[in-house]
Amino acid sequence: MTAHVGDRLPLEAAGALDPDEAARVAAHLRECTACAARAGEWRAIAEGLRSLPPARPSPALVGRTLRAVEWQLAEQAERTWNRAALGFLIALGWTLVGLAWLVLDLIRGTLALHLLRPLGSTAAWYAAYLVAGWLTAGAAAVLLGRRTQEEGRIS
Predict the structure, then answer these.
(1) Every domain of the chain and the residues it spans
(2) Model's pTM, two decimal places?
(3) Closest CA to 24 of 12, 33, 39, 15
(4) In 52-155, where does DSSP find H-type helix?
Protein backbone atom coordinates (compact mmCIF):
# COMPACT_ATOMS: atom_id res chain seq x y z
CA MET A 1 0.00 0.00 0.00
CA THR A 2 1.32 3.48 -0.93
CA ALA A 3 1.37 6.46 1.42
CA HIS A 4 -1.92 8.32 1.86
CA VAL A 5 -2.51 11.25 -0.49
CA GLY A 6 -4.98 13.30 1.57
CA ASP A 7 -3.10 16.54 0.96
CA ARG A 8 -3.33 15.96 -2.83
CA LEU A 9 -7.07 15.23 -2.99
CA PRO A 10 -8.26 18.85 -3.34
CA LEU A 11 -5.78 19.39 -6.18
CA GLU A 12 -6.86 16.13 -7.82
CA ALA A 13 -10.52 17.17 -7.64
CA ALA A 14 -9.68 20.52 -9.22
CA GLY A 15 -7.62 18.85 -11.96
CA ALA A 16 -4.53 20.80 -10.89
CA LEU A 17 -2.04 17.93 -10.58
CA ASP A 18 0.67 17.25 -13.13
CA PRO A 19 0.23 13.93 -15.02
CA ASP A 20 2.77 11.96 -12.93
CA GLU A 21 1.26 13.11 -9.64
CA ALA A 22 -2.28 12.44 -10.93
CA ALA A 23 -1.27 8.89 -11.88
CA ARG A 24 0.22 8.31 -8.41
CA VAL A 25 -2.95 9.61 -6.71
CA ALA A 26 -5.19 7.49 -9.00
CA ALA A 27 -3.14 4.37 -8.19
CA HIS A 28 -3.48 5.07 -4.47
CA LEU A 29 -7.24 5.68 -4.75
CA ARG A 30 -7.69 2.22 -6.36
CA GLU A 31 -6.05 0.65 -3.30
CA CYS A 32 -7.32 2.84 -0.40
CA THR A 33 -11.07 3.06 0.22
CA ALA A 34 -10.70 5.80 2.86
CA CYS A 35 -8.85 8.11 0.47
CA ALA A 36 -11.26 7.18 -2.34
CA ALA A 37 -14.20 8.26 -0.15
CA ARG A 38 -12.47 11.55 0.69
CA ALA A 39 -11.67 12.06 -3.02
CA GLY A 40 -15.38 11.65 -3.80
CA GLU A 41 -16.21 14.36 -1.26
CA TRP A 42 -13.61 16.69 -2.75
CA ARG A 43 -14.90 16.03 -6.28
CA ALA A 44 -18.46 16.90 -5.15
CA ILE A 45 -17.20 20.14 -3.63
CA ALA A 46 -15.22 20.96 -6.78
CA GLU A 47 -18.27 20.25 -8.98
CA GLY A 48 -20.41 22.49 -6.77
CA LEU A 49 -17.87 25.29 -7.04
CA ARG A 50 -17.73 24.92 -10.82
CA SER A 51 -21.51 25.28 -11.02
CA LEU A 52 -21.49 28.63 -9.19
CA PRO A 53 -21.87 31.74 -11.35
CA PRO A 54 -18.71 33.78 -11.77
CA ALA A 55 -18.17 36.47 -9.16
CA ARG A 56 -19.03 40.01 -10.23
CA PRO A 57 -17.43 43.07 -8.70
CA SER A 58 -19.64 45.41 -6.75
CA PRO A 59 -20.78 48.63 -8.45
CA ALA A 60 -18.87 50.61 -5.82
CA LEU A 61 -15.63 48.81 -6.70
CA VAL A 62 -16.20 49.38 -10.41
CA GLY A 63 -16.89 53.07 -9.77
CA ARG A 64 -13.76 53.51 -7.63
CA THR A 65 -11.65 51.75 -10.23
CA LEU A 66 -13.01 53.89 -13.07
CA ARG A 67 -12.39 57.09 -11.08
CA ALA A 68 -8.83 55.98 -10.30
CA VAL A 69 -8.14 55.22 -13.97
CA GLU A 70 -9.63 58.54 -15.09
CA TRP A 71 -7.54 60.39 -12.50
CA GLN A 72 -4.36 58.64 -13.67
CA LEU A 73 -5.11 59.47 -17.33
CA ALA A 74 -5.88 63.10 -16.49
CA GLU A 75 -2.65 63.37 -14.48
CA GLN A 76 -0.66 61.88 -17.36
CA ALA A 77 -2.26 64.30 -19.84
CA GLU A 78 -1.49 67.22 -17.53
CA ARG A 79 2.17 66.13 -17.23
CA THR A 80 2.43 65.92 -21.02
CA TRP A 81 0.91 69.36 -21.45
CA ASN A 82 3.18 70.82 -18.75
CA ARG A 83 6.27 69.44 -20.49
CA ALA A 84 5.19 70.89 -23.82
CA ALA A 85 4.39 74.26 -22.24
CA LEU A 86 7.73 74.32 -20.41
CA GLY A 87 9.59 73.54 -23.64
CA PHE A 88 7.73 76.31 -25.44
CA LEU A 89 8.47 78.79 -22.66
CA ILE A 90 12.16 77.93 -22.69
CA ALA A 91 12.35 78.41 -26.45
CA LEU A 92 10.42 81.66 -26.14
CA GLY A 93 12.77 82.83 -23.39
CA TRP A 94 15.83 82.10 -25.53
CA THR A 95 14.30 83.99 -28.44
CA LEU A 96 13.40 86.96 -26.26
CA VAL A 97 16.93 87.09 -24.85
CA GLY A 98 18.32 87.40 -28.37
CA LEU A 99 15.77 89.99 -29.39
CA ALA A 100 16.23 91.98 -26.18
CA TRP A 101 19.92 92.40 -26.91
CA LEU A 102 19.22 93.69 -30.40
CA VAL A 103 16.43 96.03 -29.22
CA LEU A 104 18.62 97.35 -26.41
CA ASP A 105 21.41 98.11 -28.86
CA LEU A 106 18.91 99.72 -31.22
CA ILE A 107 17.46 101.93 -28.44
CA ARG A 108 20.90 102.99 -27.22
CA GLY A 109 21.93 103.71 -30.78
CA THR A 110 24.93 101.44 -30.58
CA LEU A 111 23.65 98.85 -33.03
CA ALA A 112 25.07 100.77 -35.95
CA LEU A 113 28.38 101.13 -34.13
CA HIS A 114 28.48 97.41 -33.44
CA LEU A 115 27.70 96.64 -37.05
CA LEU A 116 30.37 99.01 -38.40
CA ARG A 117 33.25 97.75 -36.28
CA PRO A 118 34.69 94.25 -36.18
CA LEU A 119 32.33 91.81 -34.55
CA GLY A 120 34.86 90.10 -32.28
CA SER A 121 34.07 91.98 -29.05
CA THR A 122 30.37 92.42 -29.82
CA ALA A 123 29.91 88.81 -30.79
CA ALA A 124 31.61 87.67 -27.57
CA TRP A 125 29.29 89.83 -25.44
CA TYR A 126 26.27 88.76 -27.43
CA ALA A 127 27.24 85.08 -27.06
CA ALA A 128 27.82 85.52 -23.31
CA TYR A 129 24.43 87.21 -22.98
CA LEU A 130 22.71 84.40 -24.88
CA VAL A 131 24.48 81.67 -22.91
CA ALA A 132 23.56 83.35 -19.62
CA GLY A 133 19.92 83.50 -20.72
CA TRP A 134 19.96 79.86 -21.80
CA LEU A 135 21.57 78.72 -18.57
CA THR A 136 19.02 80.66 -16.55
CA ALA A 137 16.12 79.17 -18.51
CA GLY A 138 17.63 75.68 -18.22
CA ALA A 139 18.13 76.05 -14.47
CA ALA A 140 14.52 77.20 -14.09
CA ALA A 141 13.33 74.18 -16.10
CA VAL A 142 15.34 71.76 -13.98
CA LEU A 143 14.10 73.30 -10.73
CA LEU A 144 10.48 73.26 -11.91
CA GLY A 145 10.84 69.65 -13.06
CA ARG A 146 12.25 68.56 -9.70
CA ARG A 147 9.51 70.38 -7.84
CA THR A 148 6.87 68.71 -9.98
CA GLN A 149 8.42 65.28 -9.34
CA GLU A 150 8.51 65.91 -5.59
CA GLU A 151 4.88 67.03 -5.60
CA GLY A 152 3.99 63.87 -7.53
CA ARG A 153 5.65 61.70 -4.87
CA ILE A 154 3.84 63.48 -2.04
CA SER A 155 0.32 63.16 -3.45
Answers:
(1) 6-51, 77-154
(2) 0.39
(3) 12
(4) 59-108, 111-116, 119-154
